[in-house]
Design brief:
Blueprint lengths: L2 E7 L6 H8 L6 E6 L5 H7 L3 E5 L5 H14 L4 E4 L11 H7 L5 E5 L11 H18 L11 E4 H6 L8 H13 L3 E5 L13 H16 L3
Parallel strand pairs: 1-2, 1-4, 2-3, 5-7
Antiparallel strand pairs: 4-6, 5-6
């Protein structure tokens, strides 16, 4: 299976260098989407020899992932794996996602076995549990870890669905639409890794976007 790993990045200096050094040990194709960084993130990625597609301004994580999807479709890839650039996702687990695609169309990393207040910041733990329940109900399928950006998609998912959201609400949109369309979901266990990285989620704006998205799907049969 021909696949590409798409990694959105926005103002990830200086900790992204540890992540880039780790990626150099793996024989996969990595494509970074620099979402309008102003701190030299894109230049640093290029210095490590990785391909970078740049947005002229910050457009949102969803927009960055969609740029990666378009790249994959244009270049004939059978599948796309998405990872975050903050070092929380271990590239050594990529083979598990590829193997899971033999039985699924969408593969979602799941920290469910590790998600306890002792292992996660309490606010993230509570938000994850609440959103998991809501999104699972809207999708009609158990979604264990809807905020996890470590995912894999078969080409037919990207070709069949149209995604409209550009910010963090994209991550919910793609799951609900894929499951409502009838695509198969499989979970892959991944650990919880939290370091010194800072979340780019705007708690107020992104919460309102999430609520609006839930309401949209609630009234769509």
């Amino acid at each position: 299976m021909k696949f590409v790993v798409v990694i959105p990045a926005y103002n990830e200096m200086p900790h992204i260098e540890d992540f880039l050094r780790k990626l150099k040990d793996f024989p996969y194709e990595f494509v970074f989407i620099d979402d309008g960084s102003t701190d030299g993130t894109g230049d640093t990625i290029e210095r490590y020899g990785f391909r970078v597609i740049r947005h002229p301004r910050n457009m949102g994580k969803g927009a960055a992932v969609k740029t990666g999807f378009a790249y994959a479709l244009e270049n004939g890839y059978d599948a796309v794996i998405t990872m975050d650039s903050d070092g929380q996702h271990d590239p050594a687990l990529i083979p598990r996602f590829i193997d899971a695609l033999k039985e699924a169309d969408v593969v979602l990393g799941s920290r469910r076995d590790y998600m306890t207040p002792a292992n996660m910041p309490i606010d993230r733990y509570l938000v994850n549990r609440i959103t998991s329940t809501i999104i699972s109900l809207l999708a009609g399928h158990l979604i264990e870890d809807p905020q996890n950006g470590y995912r894999a998609f078969r080409r037919r998912v990207l070709e069949s669905l149209r995604f409209e959201k550009d910010r963090f609400d994209f991550e919910t949109e793609v799951l609900i639409k894929a499951l409502r369309y009838g695509f198969r979901l499989k979970h892959v266990k991944v650990p919880v890794i939290y370091g010194a990285e800072k979340s780019h989620i705007n708690k107020w704006k992104d919460t309102l976007r999430a609520i609006r998205l839930y309401l949209e799907f609630l009234f769509i049969s």
